[in-house]
């Protein structure tokens, strides 16, 4: 059964659109000097691909065809836009590119640089954080505005406005299309990784909304992570983040039971884990560790890896996990990290060692209503045999828990205590 | 001669309002020319919409950059600098050097290249 030329043209265009759009767009934005113009011209090019490819057959290099066509459409659009800033110089430059024969010599490097420029521009700190995420998904990921809106539970017109506004700010405020250099780079790099991780978390910690779209967010974040690993292999945190996302996502299927309830790591059916993804994650972690510059993502990934690599929950290397939480706390201290460190220390060096770490947190008035603190406190007291104190701590934790499954679990442990 | 900065405030315009403001363009030109001829004008310019503003604060040595115009009503405008910068990053870098960025904030607003009719 043969596909009709129409179907073939549509399939080829869809494939190029999905696989090549970000790279083509990245280069086009640099060449035409304007986000919106580049996107509009690219859209024009895809529309004419459907018509032309159906008539003349699919070109040998569809991506190159799209790039050249989009550039010509940009020239047409720019000719009509009388008031565009710097119109004459931009037109001259585009005409020059259009007359050039064959690709420039180091075109591959240029394409990689363009994709980095695009990433750093989408994640520019002068853009609203929510807009950074939306713009990154729209231009570098394969998601439509409608899909992004659904994933973030925002009405589509509102999401569209957010993206348009961000593009206008890039133009109006002259956010330059470039990779930051020197002492700017580390902070900007953290910004990029944060955007990718936020996209991942939005998909991973989905409690509401369209599950399918949210799974797609995890997929997009991991794809972006792969791209960053490819473009910036010398950055340890790029590998660390990629490892962290892969090691979490690999356990996605085991995180809920058939009734949709959350399943703790210790109780998960390991046969449901995606073992290919786990090896990819462990490989990424190794790449990061080799660079000898541990950051927060790498440390979190290492902790997750130790949990996964234990043959069974009882064999977990708690000594190393407690050390890693200690290192994480030295990088950026937070109650969440300290509480996890206390719990791990309890398993590694006995409950009293854990309780000692918890004491300053329990004395902090700001943390009195923080449920995880009381849940861990109760658990450590129970392990230490202080049953009466454990009952009080469990009651406090139960009272502070909004999640029904978690509350039932705490109640079960409370009921098991003697007396 | 003492210098004074005149800050022009106006609500953001819809399309109809923009057309009405455009119609007054000759008045603006006349006014600006007369100020220049009288030797009173130091610098002037239309700002891009508030949409394109960025606010810079320096706290504990860290530069915090936020999208949007500065909005804490308890702080008042205490000065201005008109700088020529290559791009926004350069402008933000310069903004972070002002002592005001440490105890207040510095709003960075691009001068509009095409007058936005305000």
Tell me what you see in this structure.
The complex is a heterodimer of chains A (419) and B (118). Helix content of chain A is 71%, strand content 0%. By secondary structure, chain A is mainly α. Among the domains of chain A are: 97 residues; 106 residues, Serine Threonine Protein Phosphatase 5, Tetratricopeptide repeat. Chain A is elongated and about 85 Å long. Chain B is an alpha+beta fold and 118 residues long. Chain B is 28% helix and 13% strand. Chain B has a 3-stranded antiparallel sheet. Chain B starts with 14 loop residues before the first helix and ends in a 10-residue tail after the last strand. The mean pLDDT of chain B is 84. The chains are: A mainly alpha (419), B alpha+beta (118). Chains A and B meet through helix 8 of A and strand 2 and helix 3 of B.
How is this fold's topology laid out?
The complex is a heterodimer of chains A (419) and B (118).
Chain A: H1 5-32, H2 35-56, H3 62-80, H4 87-99, H5 107-122, H6 129-139, H7 145-151, H8 156-172, H9 185-204, H10 211-231, H11 236-249, H12 275-290, H13 296-309, H14 318-331, H15 335-349, H16 351-362, H17 371-383, H18 387-400, H19 404-416
Helix pairs in contact in A: 1-2, 1-3, 1-5, 2-3, 3-4, 6-8, 6-9, 7-8, 9-10, 9-11, 10-11, 11-12, 11-13, 12-13, 13-14, 14-15, 15-16, 15-17, 16-17, 17-18, 18-19
Chain B: H1 15-22, H2 25-37, E1 54-59, E2 62-67, H3 88-95, H4 100-103, E3 106-108
Antiparallel strand pairs in B: 1-2, 1-3
């Amino acid at each position: 059964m043969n596909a009709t030329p129409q179907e073939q043209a549509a399939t080829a265009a869809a494939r190029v659109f999905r696989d090549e759009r970000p790279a083509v767009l990245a280069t086009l934005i640099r060449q035409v000097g304007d986000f919106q113009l580049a996107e509009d011209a690219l859209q024009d090019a895809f529309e004419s691909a459907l018509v032309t490819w159906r008539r003349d057959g699919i070109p040998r290099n569809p991506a190159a065809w799209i790039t050249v066509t989009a550039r010509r459409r940009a020239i047409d659009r720019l000719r009509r836009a009388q008031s565009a800033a710097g119109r004459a110089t931009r037109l001259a430059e585009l005409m020059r590119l259009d007359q050039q024969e064959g690709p420039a010599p180091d075109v591959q490097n240029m394409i990689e640089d363009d994709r980095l420029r695009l990433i750093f521009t989408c994640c520019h700190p002068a853009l609203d954080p929510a807009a950074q995420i939306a713009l990154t998904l729209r231009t570098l990921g394969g998601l439509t505005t409608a899909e992004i809106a659904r994933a973030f539970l925002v009405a589509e017109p509102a999401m569209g406005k957010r993206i348009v506004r961000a593009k206008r700010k890039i133009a109006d405020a002259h956010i330059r299309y470039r990779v930051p250099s020197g002492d700017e780079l580390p902070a900007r790099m953290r910004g990029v990784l944060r955007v990718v991780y936020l996209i991942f978390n939005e998909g991973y910690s989905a409690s509401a909304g369209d599950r399918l779209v949210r799974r797609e967010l995890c997929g997009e974040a991991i794809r972006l992570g792969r791209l960053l690993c490819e473009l910036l292999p010398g950055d340890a945190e790029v590998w660390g983040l990629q490892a962290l996302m892969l090691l979490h996502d690999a356990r996605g299927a085991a995180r809920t039971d058939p009734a949709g309830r959350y399943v703790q790591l210790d109780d998960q059916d390991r046969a449901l884990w995606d073992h290919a993804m786990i090896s990819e994650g462990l490989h990424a972690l190794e790449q990061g560790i080799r660079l000898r510059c541990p950051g927060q993502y790498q440390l979190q990934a290492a902790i997750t890896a130790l949990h996964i690599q234990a043959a069974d929950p009882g064999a977990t290397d708690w000594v190393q996990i407690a050390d890693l939480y200690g290192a994480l706390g030295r990088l950026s201290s937070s109650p969440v990290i300290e509480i996890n460190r206390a719990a791990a220390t309890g398993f590694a060096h006995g409950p009293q060692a854990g309780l000692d770490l918890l004491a300053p947190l329990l004395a902090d008035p700001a943390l009195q209503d923080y449920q995880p603190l009381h849940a861990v406190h109760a658990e450590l007291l129970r392990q230490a045999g202080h049953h009466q104190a454990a009952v009080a701590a469990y009651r406090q934790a139960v009272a502070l828990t909004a999640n029904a499954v978690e509350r039932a679990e705490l109640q079960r442990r409370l009921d098991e205590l003697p007396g | 001669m003492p210098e004074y900065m005149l800050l022009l405030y106006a609500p953001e315009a819809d399309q109809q309002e923009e057309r009405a403001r455009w119609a007054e363009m000759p008045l603006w030109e006349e006014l600006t020319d007369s100020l220049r001829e009288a030797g009173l004008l130091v610098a002037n310019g239309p700002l891009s919409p508030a949409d394109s503003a960025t606010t810079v604060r320096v706290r504990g040595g860290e530069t915090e950059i936020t999208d949007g115009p500065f909005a804490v009503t308890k702080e008042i405008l205490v000065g201005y600098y008109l700088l020529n910068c290559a791009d926004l990053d350069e402008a933000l870098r310069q903004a972070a050097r002002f002592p005001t960025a440490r105890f207040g904030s510095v709003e960075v607003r691009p001068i509009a290249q095409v007058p936005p009719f305000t």
